[in-house]
Amino acid sequence: MTTDRPILLVEDNPDDEALTLRAFTKNRIANPVVVARDGVEALDYLFGTGRHLNRDLSQMPAVVLLDLKLPRIDGLEVLRRIRGDARTAQLPVVVLTTSREQQDIRDAYALGANSYIRKPVDFERFIYTVGQLGMYWLSLNEPAETPLS
Known about the structure:
By secondary structure, this protein is an alpha/beta fold. It has helices at residues 14-26, 39-47, 75-83, 102-110, 123-140; strands spanning 7-10, 33-36, 63-66, 93-97, 115-118. The protein has one domain: Response regulator (Rossmann fold), CATH 3.40.50.2300. 39% of the residues lie in helices and 14% in strands. The longest helix is centred in the last third of the chain and has 18 residues, at 123-140.
């Protein structure tokens, strides 16, 4: 399953990043993956700032997989800024985190997360979960038109 649109993986843990990329491969998810290792990198990519200054902003990710516990700017603030800008307000954002805190879950949904998934510790369950994410967000979901400016 693939589209030409990238997946934005916002993940600061190198082990979780490698696990997620491996799960994409095992599920034959061939979308390009852009990895942002903190909230600032994620926002730079989405809004064409910093090292992504000349990025084509008409090519938004098919889905953002967002960890919450990030350095520099945390995931909830990233989500707040995504939803607060017309260019990104309709982007599908799946919180993919180890946090089991009820407040994080409430806050994520209040800020407009499309889904909140706790990272399974078991690799086989994680592969299955990523496969389901890919099937839904990359194959079945019909995205909203994204404004260009």
